[in-house]
Amino acid sequence: MALSGPQKTVVQTVGLVILMGSLAWAAVPFYDWFCRVTGFGGTTGVAEATPDEILDRVVTIRFDASKAKDMPWEFKPVEREMKVRIGETGLAFYEAYNPTDKPVAGQASYNVTPYSAGGYFQKIACFCFEEQVLEPGERIEMPVTFFVDPEIVEDPEAQYVHTITLSYTFYEIDLPEGYAALDAQAKTNTN
């Protein structure tokens, strides 16, 4: 059975809408993958282990912290900068404090500048890989373990980078499902 002109147009339009919706849905994970692989936009890499080579060249790592507009925590780096040799493992800490009277969950997004260094700044472990939940009045120090990949000296755009800024922004997120139930039960028990 052949479709008439208006029916064919409707089928093509619906097909186009489905195709565009599928592409939009796939765009976010694809873009995230692309940024992690290339370091585009200052996205850092994730490494399983440190490199075998440590160069004599030193790079300054600066630490920056910010919060989304509605995030109630206080959030800051413990130290503002450190110097590490390229290939050497660095360990830095950020401090978070929940001044509210309720538990608050947060997730950190991150990037580095200059963007050309993004693909060479490698994290081994980071608080940003997991959601964080702080109890009322709780203060914690959260570690990030990292190194600058020695391959940076071979990149024509990144080889002259002497300072890299690692920036985190914390956003409030919903409490984990099981945690929210425990919190509700605790409130019921205190009343």
From TrEMBL:
Record membrane topology: Single-pass type II membrane protein
Gene Ontology molecular function, alphabetical: copper ion binding
Keywords attached to this entry: Cell inner membrane, Cell membrane, Copper, Membrane, Signal-anchor, Transmembrane, Transmembrane helix
Main location: membrane
Lineage top rank: taxon: Bacteria
GO biological process, alphabetically ordered: respiratory chain complex IV assembly
Ranges in the topological domain labelled Periplasmic: 28-191
An annotated GO cellular component: plasma membrane
Subcellular location: Cell inner membrane
HAMAP family: CtaG
Family in the record: Belongs to the COX11/CtaG family.
The protein's role, per its UniProt record: Exerts its effect at some terminal stage of cytochrome c oxidase synthesis, probably by being involved in the insertion of the copper B into subunit I.
Listed name of the protein: Cytochrome c oxidase assembly protein CtaG
Gene field: ctaG
